[in-house]
Design a protein that fits this description.
Elements (H helix, E strand, L loop, with lengths): L1 E6 L8 E2 L6 E2 L2 E2 L5 E7 L5 E5 L1 H5 L1 H28 L7 H9 L1
Antiparallel strand pairs: 1-5, 2-3, 4-5, 5-6
Bound molecules: zinc ion.
The site of zinc ion has 8 residues, from α1.
Length: about 100
Amino acid sequence: MRIVWERSIYGGNGRVPCIICGGWANPVQKQGHQVLLAVVYNDRGQIYGEACRSCVNLGAKGIKECLQERIARLRNQLQDLQELERGEVQLPSLEQELSAYLE
Ligand SMILES: [Zn+2]
């Protein structure tokens, strides 16, 4: 992975998702109208997304740790969703549905 500060390709200075922590990356306003974002490239040189400033500040080791934690979290989430998807879907009864709206 390679991270480079580059001019934002997006219009304005709106925030974009950080692909490392999943939070938001706020562009850095430079003098004039220049807006910079930390662009993340994969090892094949393809743009992968943007990183927030605090992730960039974590350094190489910290970024890896952050990614490992996030991967573990997402794996757990995926397992939970797969478990939910496996079972039958039972919707509330019509009575329950009605009382939910009437109360
Ligand atoms: Zn981040």
